[in-house]
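Morning. Coffee machine broken again, so started the prediction first thing and wrote up yesterday's gels while waiting. Chain of 152 residues, entered below exactly as on the submission form.
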Amino acid sequence: MKPVALASDHGGYSLKEAIKAALDKDGVPYKDYGTHSEESCDYPDFAAPAARAVSEGESERAILCCGSAAGMAIVANKFSGVRAVACHNEWTARMSREHNDANVLALGGRVVDAEEGKRLARLWLDTPFEGGRHSRRISKISEVEKSPESAL
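Came back before lunch.
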């Protein structure tokens, strides 16, 4: 099993640390790309290396935490092959895996508390991609990524 890439900025630091503790408890390997404190920092500095790990196949999935989840998702989606989603409830976390084969989960440390964040991360990690009709749609996303000018 490849390690889950983890990253946060200061706004998501405590949530990332709670998720790390839950992953440790469950025996899920991870690599922490930082940050390592609540000192103010810039989320792209930490989202980019974690998303690159997914893009390059070092990790199959990543969990990124910032204040809102938006910034981390925006940065992660700049990388080839990354399908990052910001989720704030169980339904969006489940659907992002089942229908979108999301490989990066972004969570907002100022949106969900630690317990909810741990539940969402576990649900997201445990939910398989349904495939079927959804595979066709994921293929179309890949085509857009390869050539946005001529897509669809």
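The mean pLDDT is 96. Going to sketch it on the whiteboard this afternoon.
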